[in-house]
Each structure stands twice: as structure tokens, then as C-alpha cells.
Amino acid sequence: MSNYTSAAVPESSRVVIDPVTRIEGHLRVEMEAGDGVIKNAWTSTTQYRGIEVIACKRDPRDVWAFVERICGVCTGTHAIAALAAVEDALQYPVPIQAKLMRDLVSGALGIQDHVIHFYQLQAMDWVDVVSALKANPNETAAIAKSLSDWPLSSATYFAGVQKKLKDSIAHGQYSIFTNGYWGHPAYKLPPAVNLLGVAHYLQALVWQRDMIKIHTILGGKNPHPNFLVGGMACAINMNNDQAINQFSLSYLKQLVDTCHDFIHKVYYPDIVAIAGFYKDYAHIGASNPNLFCTGDPSEINTGAPAGKGMIKPGVLLNGDYKNVLPFDQDKIKEFVTSAWYKYTEGRDAGLAPYDGQTDADYNGPRPPYKWLSDRPQYTWVKAPRYDGHAMAVGPNARMMIGYAQGVPAIVERVDAACDKLGLPRDNAFMNSTLGRVYGRALDAMINVDMMVNQLQEMTNRIKNGETATFNPEKWEPETWPSSCKGVGWVEAPRGSLSHWVRIENGQTVNYQAVVPSTWNSSGRDAEGQMGPYEYSLAHTGTHPLVDPSRPVEALRTIHSYDPCQSCAVHLFDEEGEAILTRQDP
Prior knowledge:
- The chain has 585 residues and is α+β, with helices and mostly antiparallel strands.
- The protein contains 15 helices and 14 strands.
- It has one domain (11-124, 206-583): Cytochrome-c3 Hydrogenase, chain B (Orthogonal Bundle), CATH 1.10.645.
- It has a six-stranded antiparallel beta sheet with strand order 12-3-2-1-13-14.
- Helix 4 runs antiparallel to helix 12 (433-463), helix 5 (137-147) packs across helix 6 (155-170) and helix 9 runs antiparallel to helix 12 (433-463).
- It is globular.
């Protein structure tokens, strides 16, 4: 019997942001607000996916190409998880060079995603673009040079950026910065730091254009690189210009080194500079006090997480962030109490992913919606739970668990962040809006350092004659068992990702993807537990929301999870009429 009851919220207290995102599904946030705070919240994903259904009755060797299309932002990650799941089921070993290539593709994706998220998809929640017009470029240059030796840090450079911005705004053309909440009292950065943020926003656009070339070298294209069950689709041959050769390796090194510099000299220093003005957000937006991860950033596991990296798989429960519990994938179940699906055993049943069902059962209103959460079902997202607990995943979970495990590179950087923010040296602040932003930058630094080592290892192995990128041993279906199952885990940019497959007589018969945003944006379960997005906004009843028509505080918290937000955001008043249209800058 479900303990969850739907919401009865007075119309005068309703605030709706819809959609928050249009890239990885349409995210809608409904809030009960008043007296400058959020009192309750519900998050709804209003677009049906159903890729798991499409993956069934397919040749397992082809599934990666279908599920890769789940998302065009975290492109490649779902393919890699699918490969790992199928290879686990078939007990299909992969050559070490193919593994290193996958690691590099996964790492490049994670780093590019973190940078794009901060600059293009979230920075304008913290940076007031119009305020940058008041900046003194000399002051901005002095700040930039105090943070790092990045070459594009001269007063002349920042003056040029400011002039372009001023000329555009003078003609009424805010361009990519249209419809921001400029001048909102929640903005705290001085003009000089705002100009720094705008300049690096523009630099990040150019940087990421080059960064994705790592995918095109190793995977043939971006988005949606090419892969292969049993290895990689690209060959290594120093004498063939169509394969990975000396030129390819040199270019890869150049790209990885440039990436390393941008992360260490631009991205992370910007987080440090901006965070100092928003210390209060280290105490705002905590998720459920339960988090888990399965290893290092971008780590790939064929089968149950094996703990091969410096961060071991682990679980933090009930706010105890010092003691890491062992991770057990058999404790995962998905619920559909508040979702538009049905299970043969009833909505309040929990199903393990291997036995998962994706049977759509929409019973909501026809769009446009006025209010969804007054109904028992209000989202297309299932509610995964770990041993009955609502869990948060993401880069901050990786950093918190790594800190508790005593990983030196993480302890050093988290302690430095605490010192900067005037907080006790501890990992607890990482479970907050600001902690998730900080965690993503720390994750990128660790990830890019790993990429440097991975590329060097791949190069050294080539020198030693190791060039195999494909193992044909189990390619033919005749070599497969008649019935098998497998799971693949990837620590994706947004957190722990798993794909689960059952294969019978050469075809997939069941397929489930439990993605980071499923964990984080899930709705209420049978026990009435909120998912992390909802919990972060509503669990204390004190999350700020000063002006419901300009909900920048709520967006900061939701965006800190990196829900791939983009496109337009509309707000509705209690009559269901649009009172503001926001195009995310």
C-alpha cells in the first residue's frame, strides 16, 4: 500500500518552470512557494523516451548504436555502457588498446560536458552579463592573472570582449544572453568578475569545438562516435593514413594537453573565483543524504563495479559521510508509484533492472499542463532506489566518496575548497548546490590528469607492438550461450550509469538503462520519498525564492545537477497563463 499522496496546493502558491530543459528530456518543476522560500516541489519529465523498448528483439551487437541516441549531449556514454553490458553477458574480453581508446573517449566526453555545462548552461545563473559592462578591464586582468598564467588574460583582451558586448547591447541585441535575469538581487559578483565570466564563456565555445576532435579521431565522428562489440572500430597502423598512426597520436597529445591547460588554468580557477561570492550556497540545496558511485570519473566496468581505480565503489547513507559502505548492485530496484508506467505486480512494486518493465501507462491531462502534481502520477521518470533509499549520484558523489576513502588528490582539493570558503575541512559541503558545482570542476581536473596517463600508456603499448583493437573470438552468435545476462557501468558526467541486458537465442529480450538523471530527477516512491531534485528544493522549507517571476535561485540548484538544460523556460501564474518566457542565456 503506497504511503504517497498527491499534492493539494493553493493556486496562489503555485510556481511552475516548464521546461527547464529540452536536451535530455523536458524537465518541469512545480513548486509551492511563499514568504520568499520554496515549501514543496515536484519534478516532472514530460517527454517519453522508450529506447529500452526499441532495443529489444535486436542483435546484441547492434544495440549500442540504438541506445547511444538516448542523448546527444552525453554522446558515446550510453554506447559504452551498452558495449560493457553485452560483453559482460557474452563474457567477451576486449583488447587493452580498445579499452584505452574507450577510456579516452569517455574521459573527453566527461570533461567537455563539464565545461559546456558550467559555461554555456549554468554560468549565467551566477554571472550578471549586463554588470560586465561596468567593469574595468585592468581590474579583470589583474584578477585573471592572480588565478593562473592563462595567456588570454590581458587588459586589452578583456576590453575587446567588453566592447563587443557593449556594441551588441547598445543595438538592443543581447543575442545568446537574451532574457537573462540581469540585475536580480541574487547576483553577487562584482563587475570585474562578471566580465571574466563572460570572456571565458566565449572562450569555452571555441575550446569545446576542438575538444570533440578526440571523438572524431577515435570514433570517426561526433556526436555518436562509432564503436564495436569486442573492441573498437578504428585500427592502429603506423603506415596507414586511415588508421591511428603517428600523426593521430601527436594530434591526440596536443588536444589532451590543451584540454589539461584549460581545465587547470581557466575552468577550475573560475569556480574558485566565483564560489567565494556565493558561500551561502554551500548551505543550500542539499540532496537526500544518500549518495553512491562506482569508481573514478569516466570509469567503465564490464559487470559489477570492480574497484579498479583510485576511487572505489561505495555508498554513503543517512548523512554519514565518513563511513563508506560496500556497493551492491543487487540492491537496486525501480519503482513507478509516481510515474506513467505500470508493472504487472502493481505500481508500488519494485523491480530489479534485469527484470525491469517499460510499459507506458499515461493517465495525465492533455498538454498544455496547468498543474501535474495534484495527481498520483506526474512524470515519465521511474524512481530507482538502493536498498529502499533515494540516492543522489554525480561528480560530487564521486568526490565525497573519494574523500571519505582518503584518496590524496581528492582530499587535497576538497580541503583547499573548504579553506577558500571558510568551512571546516570536510566533505559534507559537497552535498549542496555549490558543492555540486565545485565537485564537477574537481572531477574534470582528476579526469584530465587520467587522460594524460591513458594516452601515454596507449602510445607506449604501440611502441611495444600492441596494436590489436578488436577481438574476433566471440563475434559470431554460434559462440554465444543460449541465454545470458550482463550489466555495464560507467561513471558518466552526471553520475553512475548502468545498462542491463538479457539475451536469448541471439537476441536481446529485455533491456533497461538506469541513468544518472533517473536517480536524480525521480519522483516520489511508494514510501513518499522525494527524488534528489525535489529534496534539494523542498526538504528544509527554507530554499530561497525571492521573486517567483525570476526564479534564479531555484534554477541554480536544479542546474547544479546538470540536467542538460537548454532552450526556452516558461513561467505560469496561478491561472495557467505565461507570465514570463525565458530563453536560457
